[in-house]
């Protein structure tokens, strides 16, 4: 009968071994289950070899292995349930069990005491396993753990019955010898061993099925999230105002483009996708495209690359393109975002103009005039340089008599005459409320009288066209630097022209 039990235990251990080899990464604690089964087999083998090996090894070590295996099973099941605990108390109990068994095996041999000791250990340890699986398991998996719990409860019950029987009979009977009660007990243990193995298999199967269901649910959730993400990306991709284009790095073939890009390139989808930007003539300067590609290959990404592009009806527009190299199915592609910066450029130019131009006349303001004049003077070389200073007559009186609106119109008349009296290459400015300045450059000498005459002619013409209730007038003074003369700075020229302008005013009695 013991041989049958050992063979049965080996078969069950093999089943648990296969279960461990296939699921050790997915089922926590299963390695300790296998350790328990192996300990049970070795323990039974040692007990069966009594007489052939020392009694201590057969009677003590064999039973200690069986009890230790049950502790390992308990620890493994706790890990499986996610409720691990230290087994200090149980190992202390195992030490006490070992001492008692050794005493009744070596010092004072007593088969009945050893049988009771072994049954007490089995009942104590299996009761803990039964309580764990029946009471401590989570409610959601209770149906899966109940089988193991009831099997271990049956172990506890049979061990308790054997304790009661041995105490009542007080007859030394070897568990593995042919006594009716003992035969029933060993047969019950064999049945329970098979039932425990089957219960563990069912529990693992339920665990794996639940895990598969969870994985499937997570997969469905991930797929739904991915679809939502793709929908959001597609919506953003196609609805962003900037042009977005995906091109193959090897030949520049357009794989995808959003509506923003199609609008910039003035193409429909059929005419763009499947063609290259070269075929579309999108880049106004093909060398810029090559520079953009070179920077992408070197850095992997490019930000705010400035270039000119061809848009609808041959319109050329300034743009900035940002791109990044990406991998799609092992092939390099370029994702580029193109932005038309025409409005931005115009706004920048407008800001520059507002910061350098007089808002009423459109001439340079004082600060811009001085910056431009100093730079031109430094680069003038041997040119003839003339500084002209103008002062409008009686602006305060005009404002007082006719109002500031008429006064502003008079300022514009004088400003237009100043602008028209000189070349576009000369620097003209309104440097004060009623004051204007010009820096003029020429290769020949320019007579002051000629400058004054030209200005007066232009002013007279504009007065006739303006329809003002008076004729706007202004006095002027000039200062020059002759070719080959020593360098004269701007402030000196302007002071001299200003002084001559006031001389002219006094001479006119203005």
Cross-sheet strand order for the largest sheet: 2-1-5-4-3
Distance between the termini: 142 Å
Query: Total number of β-strand segments?
Result: 9
The overall pLDDT average reads 88
The number of helices is 17
Question: Any low-confidence stretches, pLDDT <50, length ≥5?
Answer: none
The biggest beta sheet reads: 5 strands, antiparallel
**What proportion of the residues form beta strands (DSSP E)?**
5-15%
SS content category: alpha+beta
Radius of gyration from CA coordinates: 52 Å
* Percentage of residues in helical conformation: 55-70%
Broad shape: rod-shaped
Q: What pattern of helices and strands is seen along the backbone?
A: HHHHHHHEEHHHHEEEHHEHHEEHEH
Structural notes for this entry:
The chain is of the alpha+beta class. Helix content is 63%, strand content 14%. It contains 17 helices and nine strands. Strands 2-1-5-4-3 form a five-stranded antiparallel β-sheet. A hairpin with a 2-residue loop joins strand 4 and strand 5. Helix 1 (2-23) packs parallel to helix 7 (180-239), helix 3 (55-81) runs antiparallel to helix 4 and helix 14 packs antiparallel against helix 15. The chain is rod-shaped. The N and C termini lie far apart (142 Å). The relative contact order is 0.05. The mean pLDDT is 88.
């Amino acid at each position: 009968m013991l041989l049958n039990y050992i063979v049965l235990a080996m078969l069950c251990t093999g089943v648990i071994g296969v279960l461990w080899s296939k699921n050790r990464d997915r089922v926590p604690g299963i390695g300790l289950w296998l350790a328990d089964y192996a300990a049970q087999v070795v323990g039974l083998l040692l007990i069966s070899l009594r007489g052939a090996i020392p009694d201590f090894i057969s009677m003590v070590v064999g039973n200690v292995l069986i009890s230790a295996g049950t502790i390992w099973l308990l620890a493994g099941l706790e890990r499986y349930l996610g409720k691990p605990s230290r087994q200090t108390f149980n190992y202390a109990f195992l030490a006490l069990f070992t001492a008692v068994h050794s005493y009744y095996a070596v010092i004072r041999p007593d088969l009945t005491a050893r049988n009771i000791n072994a049954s007490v250990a089995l009942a104590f340890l299996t009761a803990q396993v039964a309580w764990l699986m029946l009471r401590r398991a989570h409610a959601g998996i209770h149906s899966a753990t109940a089988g193991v719990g009831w099997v271990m409860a049956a172990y506890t019950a049979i061990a308790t019955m054997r304790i009661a029987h041995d105490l009542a009979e007080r007859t030394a009977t070897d568990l593995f010898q042919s006594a009716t009660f003992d035969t029933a007990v060993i047969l019950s243990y064999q049945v329970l061993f098979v039932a425990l193995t089957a219960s563990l298999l069912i529990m693992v199967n339920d665990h794996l099925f639940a895990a598969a269901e969870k994985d499937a649910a997570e997969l469905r959730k991930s797929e739904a999230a991915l679809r939502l993400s793709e929908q959001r990306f597609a919506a953003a991709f196609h609805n962003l105002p900037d042009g977005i284009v995906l091109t193959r790095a090897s030949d520049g073939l357009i794989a995808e483009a959003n509506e923003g890009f199609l609008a910039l390139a003035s193409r429909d989808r059929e005419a763009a996708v499947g063609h290259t930007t070269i075929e579309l003539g999108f880049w106004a300067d093909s060398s810029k495209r090559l520079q953009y590609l070179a920077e992408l290959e070197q850095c992997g990404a490019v930000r705010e690359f400035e270039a000119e592009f061809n848009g609808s009806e041959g319109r050329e527009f300034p743009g900035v393109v940002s791109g990044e190299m990406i991998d799609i199915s092992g092939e390099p592609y370029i994702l580029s975002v193109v932005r038309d910066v025409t409005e931005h450029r115009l706004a920048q130019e407008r800001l520059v103009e507002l910061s350098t131009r007089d808002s009423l006349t459109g001439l340079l303001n004082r600060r811009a005039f001085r910056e431009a004049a100093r730079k031109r003077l430094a680069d003038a070389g041997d040119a003839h340089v003339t500084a002209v200073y103008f002062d409008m007559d009686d602006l305060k009186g005009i404002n007082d008599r006719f109002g500031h609106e008429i006064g502003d119109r008079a300022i514009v008349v004088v400003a237009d005459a100043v602008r028209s009296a000189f070349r576009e290459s000369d620097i003209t400015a309104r440097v004060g409320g009623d004051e204007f300045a010009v820096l003029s450059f020429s290769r020949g000498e320019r007579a002051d009288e000629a400058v004054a005459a030209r200005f007066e002619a232009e002013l007279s013409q504009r007065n006739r066209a303006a329809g003002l209730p008076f004729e706007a007038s202004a006095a002027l003074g000039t200062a020059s630097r002759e070719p080959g003369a020593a360098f004269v700075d701007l402030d000196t020229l302007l002071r001299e022209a200003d002084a001559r302008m006031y001389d002219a005013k006094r001479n006119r009695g203005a």
